[in-house]
Amino acid sequence: MRRLVSADALRVLVPAMSLAVLLGAVFYLQPRTMSYTGLNLLFNLAVPIALATLAQMLIMAVNDLDLSMGAFVSFAACVTATFLQSAPLLGLLILAAAVAVYAGLGVIIHLRNLPAIVVTLGMSFVWSGLAVLILPSPGGAAPEWIRAIMTVRPPFAPMAIVASVLIAVIAHLIVMRSSLGVVLRGVGGNRRSVERAGWSVVRVRAMTYALAAVFAILAGISLVGLTTAADANIAMRYTLLSIAGVILGGGEFVGGRVSPIGAVIGALTLTLAASFLSFLRISPDWQIGAQGAILILVLAIRLVLNRRENKEKRA
Amino acid sequence: MNDESQLPAVIAVDGARKSFGAVKALDGVDFTVAPGQCIGLVGHNGAGKSTLVNVINGGITLDQGTIALAGQNHSSGHSIARARSGGIRCVFQELSLCPNLTVLENVRIAHRTLTGFGWRTRAAKLISAQLDTIFPGHGISAGSVVGDLSIAQRQMVEIATAFSRDSDPVALVILDEPTSSLDASRAHQLIEYVKTFTAEGGAVIFISHILGEILEAAHRVIVMRDGKVVGDRPASEFTVPGLVQAMGSVAAKRQARRETDARASGEAPVVARPQHTDAVAFRAFRGELVGLAGLSGHGQTETLVDLYKSLSSDWRAARDPKAAFVAGDRLIDGIFPIWSILRNMSITVLADWSRRGFVDVAREIGFGGDWKQRIGIRSDDLENPILSLSGGNQQKALFARALGSRAEVVLMDDPMRGVDIGTKQDVYAMLRQEADKGRTFVWYSTEMDEVSVCDRVYVFRDGRIVAELAGDAVSEDAILAASFGERAA
Fold first, then answer.
1. Which of the four CATH numbers 1.10.3470, 2.40.128, 2.40.10, 1.10.287 does domain A7-309 have?
2. How deeply is B3 buried, as exposed, middle or buried, from its count of CB atoms within 10 A (0-12, 13-18, 19+)?
3. Chain B residue with minimum CA distance to A258
4. B147 close contact with A: CB closer than 8 A
5. In whole numbers, what is the pLDDT of chain B averaged over residues?
6. pTM exceeding the 0.90 threshold for the entire prediction
């Protein structure tokens, strides 16, 4: 029965190793990245992606999928660049209302037994529409404080790294260590068993969705902090990036098997893969395809390891 | 009836009635459990045991009747939450832990009171202590992920979780087939613990297909049949054969069964399965109705699926399919819910007629009309959606789908669940007719009268075939005796 690494450790180990390998390759190709500024530039955009990935991970922990992630992060970014900057109180109110809407989505999906994919796909148009209404043309400005946070230069390690570690630790505490996180993952693992123990699954789902919205809003705010302005389509890529990040980080689509640390690592890997391909001088036309190839490669490695593990378990 | 009855009963069910469609799952059940008592609950498939368990734990609301918890009547408001706060715990037949969580996290799911700082340490202590008490030498660490444990270990965790107490009370523990994946020594440890638990004033409802365990653990045995309690006596007054007899119904009217002509030794079976762990090798010959019996979930469906896979290919749809499958769970595996009746019927045979990739509509309509008449589907228009039919008629359409193909072998996975008696008679007659024409049927059924129709019956227990009954040896008593056999040590 005893194995060297548990399934859960493996879940984080594979993405961590892929990140290390990729980082090594980038350092080899472009030694100048091996500096404080270089690392900051490499991982700068990883912070919002990591936050969006965590939001997606929460939804996936209860066996759902959020296809409106990109649109919602864009919406949050537009609110940040306009209302949050000019009328902070109103801005906060709008964002709080958005969180409430997300909780409501969780309730509707649960009560009406709707597929989350369909509901969130529909919502993605709603969020996009709202974002365009708020900011018809690219513009707006980042609030001073968020700009200050995102450009802070902590000693030893650049902001992007410190922030990623901090985010990973907080998410780990919430999802893996807190008792709310246990029930949340329990709903993904075996909903009936949670119900039978007398929990209200609809409440758990609503809380999960609300928490996901909070992470997604943070993603939008941090994105504006980096770009200093917003656009209604600023984060459209995030829907697929966040799903890829969760899977790359050892999460699974069903069964409540997720790893917050892995998800952050997955987001970092995805960001790095883009830089890696630029350093290889692959034309941008091919980059998305090459990024997909990296994704498939990592997933294949994980599949092989999982399979071997299952074989051992059976033996 | 005994001196404990002065205390308020842990639970008292009075005149419970519950129907699912045409099926009466509970038909007026009176039932009490006193503190300090272990009740053995036995009965064959569909006797109403699981429904009764779900009523007690609040998962199902009654159509009629009352439930009193610790003397307080909650006929209307009995719910899962109330049952739990009243100290009712349940170990379900199918394992119900979250496989993605660790042992102690599952304990947290079960105990809502385990909150606040340091809950992990408390949960780990709680479960480890309880496991040590019930199953000494269990070798399970509270931090391991449930998905990595063996089935027996998971069952031990589940049992220990049910008996463990944090700040909420444990008054009654329902054990539904708790020993199905435990070996004999672990099962014995559990029974010993049940005895100490009841001696300390707890109550237990013990459900098992191993009657020896019931007689050893229980003070009182309740026998159920067809949604009614047909026997309620102290365990000391029962013996294993006596229990088997009490579970069976009065000698059911035997259908005329075809004489099982002695098979010429040279004839090859149409379907066969290598005999791995089975006591008897599975074989089915041309023109035979072969029954698969035993308690539900003991490997019959898996066997059918295996047989089907061995007779068909994953990659290409055979032009001449050897086997057809009639699914038991209509809604999940059977019908295409948004299609018409006709399309649901013709899906398996379409390939036979298609011309250059197009469906031959005229033939499809002809086929539908033909089978509608032969099998008696009650609908004026086959273009109506399948869901407009009653359950029994939906099932008939699925039978037409299988019988209309040219498959020699038809595998049936308990297809008559929730079907009214009239439809059943129609289908029995048709199956017999088709078998006489040379088709082979392999039929898993949870209902005794259906199994009794078969020429030959294999009885399953714990995932293996334990007995083969042929001809006149096919009887309710023989099947019950084989399905409720003693644990092989």
1. 1.10.3470
2. exposed
3. B100
4. yes
5. 82
6. no
